[in-house]
Amino acid sequence: MSDNLKRALSGAVYVVIMWFGTSYSNFSCSLLFAVLGIICLYEMWQLRKGKSKILALSYVFIPFILIQTQIWCHFTTVAVFDRFTHKFWAADLILLLFILTWTFDTFAFLIGVKYGRNKIMPSISPKKSWEGFIGGFIFTIIASYISFSYFKFPGFNNFTPALVMAMIIPFTASAGDFIASYYKRKAEVKNSGNFIPGHGGMLDRMDAFMITIPAIYLVINLI
C-alpha cells in the first residue's frame, strides 16, 4: 500500500470516528474526548522525557477538561447559561468547531504548498506561510457561512456566532500548531507518535484544538 493511499484511508477513518463520536450522543462525545485526551497526554509526556512537563501537559490537559465540563453540565445545570453556553457546547457545536478547524488546516496547507513564499515562523514550523494562513482564513469564513446556512446549531439565532468562531479559529489553530511544533523540535522528532498511519500521533491531529477550545470557551462565557 502506497503512503498516500495509507494516509488517505487512515485520514478517512479518523474523520468518520470523530464525526460519529461527536454527533451520536453526549456520552459518545465524552468517551471520545476522554480517549483522545489520554493518548495526547501520553504523547506529550513522551516528548518531554527528561524535561519540565507542567506547561506542556497543561497545554493538553486544559482543553480536554473544558470539553468534558461543558458536555456534562448540559445534564446537571439549568441555570441561565443553559440558554446559550450549555447548548453551545453540545455535541453538534463541538462538531462545528471541528469542521471549521479542519477547513482552515486543509486550505492553509493546500494554498501554502502552492503559493507560500513568506514564512510565519520558519525556525519552528518551516512549512507555515502567510499566504496559506490568509487562504485558510478565507475558506474558514466560507465554511462557517455554509455550515450556518445548511445545519441548525443550538444557540445560533444569527450568523454572528459562527462568524466569530471562524475569525478566531485561524489564529488559535495556528498557535496550537506552533506550540506543538516547538515541543517536537525540542524532542528532535517529526511527529508526536505513530498512532495514525501516515499522519503521525494523535497530538499531531489535535494540536490545532489545544488553544482553540479554551479561546472559544472564554469568548462564549465572558463575552
Structure, explained:
By secondary structure, this protein is an all-alpha fold. The protein has one domain (3-222). It contains nine helices and no strands. It has helices spanning 3-24, 26-47, 54-76, 85-88, 91-115, 130-150, 160-187, 202-206, 209-222. Residues 75-89 have low confidence and may be disordered.
The count of DSSP E runs of length 2 or more, i.e. the number of strands, is: 0
Q: State the low-pLDDT regions, or none.
A: 75-89
Mean pLDDT: 82
Count every helix, treating DSSP H or I runs of 4 or more residues as helices. 9
Number of domains: 1
Biggest sheet statistics:
none
Considering DSSP H and I runs of 4 or more, what fraction of the residues is helical?
Answer: over 70%
- What's the helix-strand series? HHHHHHHHH
Rg, nearest Å: 17 Å
Coarse shape: globular
Structural class: mainly alpha
Give the end-to-end Cα distance, rounded to a whole number of Å: 50 Å
Strand content: under 5%
Please write out the topology.
Layout: H1 3-24, H2 26-47, H3 54-76, H4 85-88, H5 91-115, H6 130-150, H7 160-187, H8 202-206, H9 209-222
Helix pairs in contact: 1-2, 1-5, 2-3, 3-9, 5-6, 5-7, 6-7, 7-9
What key phrases describe this protein's structure?
mainly alpha; globular; 223 residues; 9 helices
